[in-house]
């Protein structure tokens, strides 16, 4: 049973299609990364899911319910650049948004204090938000997204603007959160996606180009890469290698070559044979795993 | 209720940025400055050297009704400007700086969001107007003669509706543009247009909101509320409700 079911989601601004026919399902308890370069339509997609902008076309159903009900009571949303009422204190702001989410003042205060402790803002809770640093605002932004104990947490680029320490803190927090809720977050940084997410959605030019679990996408590219280095660069190296049926492509890199292969086992055998026969001074033979980056570039460029 | 949560937060904001202090003070000054100047004008002229010999200007003391109306006149120009200034960022400011993203990602209805903000601003303006007109009425009684308290109260209530009409125009314009400067310019332009149209076609548009202040002037002299006055009040209230609806609908349909 899926938590959120998105079918044919499309958004056009003034006739220009920004998100086109995006369909996916979110399983409860997963952490899903929406990956794509800047301008891919990530923010637009998330804003539609958070209820800010109406889809031009398509359906979003939540927890088997149709969208006629206000799904905002079940979701928490952190925009890419959260702004607050800067004259309020962190605690006041959380109590305010808590009361907007059907909590009584007492409940909202209790929950706000709990969350402030959790995101490490307990000491600053009485301070005006004006005085908060960027990282503190981001953490307050996460706290406000959690105020109503949401079934789905939507985070737009939660770590992109943070320094390494802030980034680490937020990633750790997300790893904790995914134990109790479902998270959908966008990022253009593959590392962040690899680090916390179970599933990936890849968006490019408004279209969903890949969808699947991390492992599945890692294995997507069956062709592997082999890195070969030599003490002395052999003559005819490239042409000899390219003659092998198991090899797709050869590219010189530094002291050696990078070989893209069709079949790893076959290629390993043939290359080593060639090395022995020609007595090439091989110094390094490394089988490189295709990284997410390669998958992404491949998907995007195909 | 979520409506009252937004309303209270707005009230808290007016307290923190001291609007609760300066707006009533400014309206207080607008309320009394004309009466005081007019009363002391002969003394001021004397103190600054007096009139040249032979010149004689007789400044008649205005009747109390006219003296009190000077306060409303000031509200009509400077008061409108101040209201324009404090309402130009009401919604537009939040749309521009992005706070709305956090507020509207919570289950908040647009109608609550708009009307709570509108009501909060109206409260501030009505309290300020009350302060200003009460002071004007008090000085009128001291300096120019008796004017009944009921006259003050009626004038306050009716003119209050007119100022809420202006606030509603500003709220509506707030949902069109994100730039507060543009909102200020358009709100003032619209109220000026209403008044211009009213003076140009006054004989047809007898129920126009633009007539309200001149009807109040008549009322202060005669003490009776005419049918035209009731008509203008009715039109104004209908327009206020209509504009609030429009503001909510526009915000709903807007690509935020």
TrEMBL record, chain A:
SUPFAM superfamilies referenced in this protein's UniProt entry, alphabetically: P-loop containing nucleoside triphosphate hydrolases
Residue stretches spanning the membrane: none
GO molecular function, one term: ATP binding
CDD domains: ABC_DR_subfamily_A (cd03230)
PANTHER family: ABC TRANSPORTER RELATED, ABC TRANSPORTER, ATP-BINDING PROTEIN
Keyword vocabulary terms for this entry: ATP-binding, Nucleotide-binding, Transport
Identification of the protein by name: ABC transporter ATP-binding protein
Superkingdom, natural source: Bacteria
Similarity annotation: Belongs to the ABC transporter superfamily.
Entry-linked InterPro entries: AAA+_ATPase, ABC_transporter-like_ATP-bd, ABC_transporter-like_CS, DrrA1/2-like_C, P-loop_NTPase
Domain ABC transporter: 4-230
TrEMBL record, chain B:
Highest taxon, organism lineage: Bacteria
Name of this chain's protein: ABC transporter permease subunit
Transmembrane annotation, as ranges: 20-41, 78-97, 118-140, 152-177, 184-209, 229-251
Organism: Salinibacillus aidingensis
Pfam families for the chain: ABC2_membrane_2
Keyword set, alphabetical order: Membrane, Transmembrane, Transmembrane helix
């Amino acid at each position: 049973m899926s938590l959120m079911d998105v079918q044919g989601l499309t958004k056009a601004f003034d006739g220009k299609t920004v998100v086109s026919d995006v369909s996916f399902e979110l399983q409860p308890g997963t952490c899903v990364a929406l990956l794509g370069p800047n301008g891919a339509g990530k923010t637009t997609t998330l804003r539609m899911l958070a209820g800010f902008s109406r889809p031009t076309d398509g359906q979003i159903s939540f927890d088997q319910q149709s969208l006629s009900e206000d799904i905002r009571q079940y979701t928490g949303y952190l925009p890419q650049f959260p702004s607050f009422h800067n004259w309020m204190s962190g605690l006041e702001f959380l109590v305010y948004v808590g009361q907007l989410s059907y909590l009584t003042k007492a409940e909202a205060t209790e929950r706000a204090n709990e969350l402030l402790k959790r995101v490490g803002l307990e000491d600053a809770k009485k301070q005006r938000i004006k005085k908060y640093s960027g990282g503190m605002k981001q953490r307050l932004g996460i706290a406000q997204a959690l105020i109503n104990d949401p079934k789905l947490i939507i985070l737009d680029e939660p770590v992109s603007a943070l320094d390494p320490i802030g980034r680490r803190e937020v990633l750790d927090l997300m790893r904790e959160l995914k134990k109790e809720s479902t998270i959908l977050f966008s990022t253009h940084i593959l590392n962040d996606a690899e680090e916390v997410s179970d599933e990936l959605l890849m968006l490019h030019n408004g279209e969903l180009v890949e969808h699947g679990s991390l492992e599945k996408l890692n294995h997507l590219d069956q062709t592997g890469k082999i890195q070969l280095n030599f003490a002395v660069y052999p003559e005819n190296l490239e042409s000899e290698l390219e003659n092998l049926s198991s090899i797709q492509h050869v590219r010189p890199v530094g002291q050696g070559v990078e070989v893209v292969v069709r079949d790893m086992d076959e290629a390993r055998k043939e290359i080593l044979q060639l090395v022995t026969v020609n007595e090439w001074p091989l110094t390094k033979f490394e089988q490189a795993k295709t990284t997410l980056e390669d998958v992404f570039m491949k998907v995007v460029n195909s | 209720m979520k409506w009252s949560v937004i309303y209270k937060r707005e009230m808290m904001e007016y307290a923190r940025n001291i609007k609760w202090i300066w707006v009533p003070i400014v309206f207080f000054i607008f309320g009394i400055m004309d009466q005081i100047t007019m009363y002391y004008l002969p003394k001021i002229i004397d103190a600054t050297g007096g009139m040249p010999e032979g010149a004689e200007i007789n400044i008649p003391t205005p009747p109390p009704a006219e003296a009190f109306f000077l306060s409303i006149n000031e509200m009509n120009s400077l008061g409108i400007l101040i209201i324009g200034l404090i309402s130009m960022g009401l919604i537009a400011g939040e749309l521009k700086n992005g706070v709305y993203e956090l507020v509207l990602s919570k289950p908040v209805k647009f109608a609550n969001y708009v009307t709570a903000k509108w009501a909060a601003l109206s409260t501030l303006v009505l309290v300020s107007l009350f302060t200003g007109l009460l002071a004007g009425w008090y000085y009128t009684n001291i300096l120019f003669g008796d004017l009944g308290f009921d006259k003050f109260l009626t004038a306050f209530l009716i003119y209050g509706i007119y100022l809420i009409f202006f606030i509603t125009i500003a709220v509506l314009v707030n949902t069109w543009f994100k730039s507060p400067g543009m909102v200020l310019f358009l709100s003032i332009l619209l109220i000026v247009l209403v008044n211009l149209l009213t003076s140009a076609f006054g004989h047809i548009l007898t129920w126009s909101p633009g007539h309200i202040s001149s009807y109040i002037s008549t009322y202060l002299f005669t003490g009776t509320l005419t049918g035209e006055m009731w008509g203008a009040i009715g039109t104004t209230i209908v327009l206020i409700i209509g504009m609030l609806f429009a503001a909510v609908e526009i915000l709903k349909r807007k690509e935020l």
